[in-house]
Amino acid sequence: MKVYVVESHYGYFDEKRVVLNGIFTDDKAADDCAEKIRTRYRTAFRMGDPTDNVEDWMDLSLSDFGELHEMQKDYYESIKYNGTIVNEYEMSRHHFDIQLML
After folding, report:
1. Which residues are bridge partners to 90 per DSSP?
2. 11's torsion region: left (phi>0), alpha (psi -120 to 50) or beta?
3. pTM for this structure?
């Protein structure tokens, strides 16, 4: 049985981190998931820092401020984003055991 793990890589040197975005049994679903993540960060990076375009902070509503904060968070995360890959693993059908370590 093959499983496909979608991984996103962030950071440089000592600050590298890997985020597991999903585990799939269908390669097309894994590829779709990876492409959505790539598009999200590509778009956020191209748009730039959204706070650069704010003229008057006092005119922002609380919901606008929250949305702006989320967009800014995506932008700064996109700067550290290195890419998303899909890894394929062959797993024995009878010994399928997943342990999450927190």
Report:
1. 2
2. left
3. 0.75
